[in-house]
């Protein structure tokens, strides 16, 4: 007959496991977790809390350095939400993110499927397509600003040579600027989508395609019924990473249009930058930054709930 001893806290120790041994294992587990928790608190938790508090304070260049900014309630939030530029920036952010993700994913998936076929110079072409992804975004923005220049740009000169009109104001027309920025960002993001999706396609069992061919399935039916379902986890990762990197883009837009013309390419990222570092209104900049964080958090919640539903 065996007996168990109840500790003072009411817990029953595990049979055959000495208390000091369990304590050492528990301390070892926390020892492995502690660095990650400390890193998250220092580099994510503290800046987030500090940004939220700053949005409720009256910050000027003087009070920013002295750290004695008084609380002003919801004045910063009210000022930002009543600003017409904020509404435009929010809409432009949604359009820019959705357009970029759609273009990058569709073209990247098409290229990934294309490169699964064996043909000469396959590897060389895939390597060349990676170049836009490897170049720093600021450099890409400056280069594309020269290419899209209305008067001296290479693109307009080429269109003029073809007789298609060579005076298109790609970056100076409020109706064209946002579309131009989206197209440039699609060009930059295609390699990332192609590489990740190409890797996912390599994991699709060949036997499934052979069985579909024996059943007489068309190429589109095979893609829709085999490739897409098997590739769904990879597609989810690509879209999530793409959203997180696109919704907060700043340097590309600053290099191309600086948010203009007439705020036509103003996004939440550029508005945060201009409020904080151009107008030195740090409280308003913190408000816009918090809205951007909230959008990302809502997207993350939907993503986690969708994954949980699929896993059931």
Automatic annotation (TrEMBL):
Domain of life assignment: Bacteria
Chief location of this protein within or outside the cell: membrane
Family: Belongs to the binding-protein-dependent transport system permease family.
UniProt membrane topology term: Multi-pass membrane protein
Name of the protein: Sugar ABC transporter permease
InterPro entries: MetI-like (IPR000515), MetI-like_sf (IPR035906)
Assigned keywords, A-Z: Cell membrane, Membrane, Transmembrane, Transmembrane helix, Transport
Localization annotation: Cell membrane
Transmembrane intervals: 30-49, 89-116, 128-147, 176-198, 230-250, 282-304
Domain ABC transmembrane type-1: 90-303
């Amino acid at each position: 007959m065996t007996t168990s001893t109840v500790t003072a806290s009411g817990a029953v120790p595990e049979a055959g496991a000495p208390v000091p041994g369990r304590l050492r294992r528990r301390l070892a587990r926390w020892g492995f977790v502690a660095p990650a928790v400390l890193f998250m608190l220092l580099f994510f938790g503290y800046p987030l809390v500090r940004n939220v508090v700053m949005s409720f304070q009256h910050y000027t260049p003087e009070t920013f350095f002295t750290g004695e900014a008084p609380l002003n309630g919801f004045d910063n939030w009210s000022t930002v939400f009543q600003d017409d530029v904020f509404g435009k920036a929010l809409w432009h952010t949604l359009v820019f993110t959705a357009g970029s993700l759609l273009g990058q994913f569709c073209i990247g998936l098409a290229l990934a499927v294309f490169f699964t076929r064996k043909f000469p110079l396959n590897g060389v072409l895939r390597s060349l397509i990676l170049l836009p992804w490897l170049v720093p975004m600021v450099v890409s923005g400056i280069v594309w600003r020269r290419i899209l220049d209305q008067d001296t740009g290479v693109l307009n000169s080429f269109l003029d040579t073809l007789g298609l009109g060579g005076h298109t104001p790609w970056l100076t027309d409020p109706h064209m600027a946002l579309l131009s920025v989206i197209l440039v960002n699609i060009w930059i993001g295609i390699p990332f989508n192609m590489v990740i999706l190409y890797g996912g396609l390599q994991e699709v069992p060949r036997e499934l395609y052979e069985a579909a061919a024996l059943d007489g399935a068309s190429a589109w039916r095979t893609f829709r019924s085999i490739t897409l379902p098997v590739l769904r986890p990879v597609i989810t990762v690509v879209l999530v990473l793409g959203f997180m990197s696109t919704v907060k883009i700043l340097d590309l837009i600053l290099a191309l249009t600086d948010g203009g013309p007439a705020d036509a390419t103003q996004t939440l990222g550029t508005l945060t930058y201009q409020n904080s570092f151009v107008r030195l209104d740090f409280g308003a900049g913190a408000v816009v930054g918090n809205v951007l964080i909230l959008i990302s958090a809502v997207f993350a919640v939907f993503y986690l709930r969708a994954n949980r539903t699929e896993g059931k």
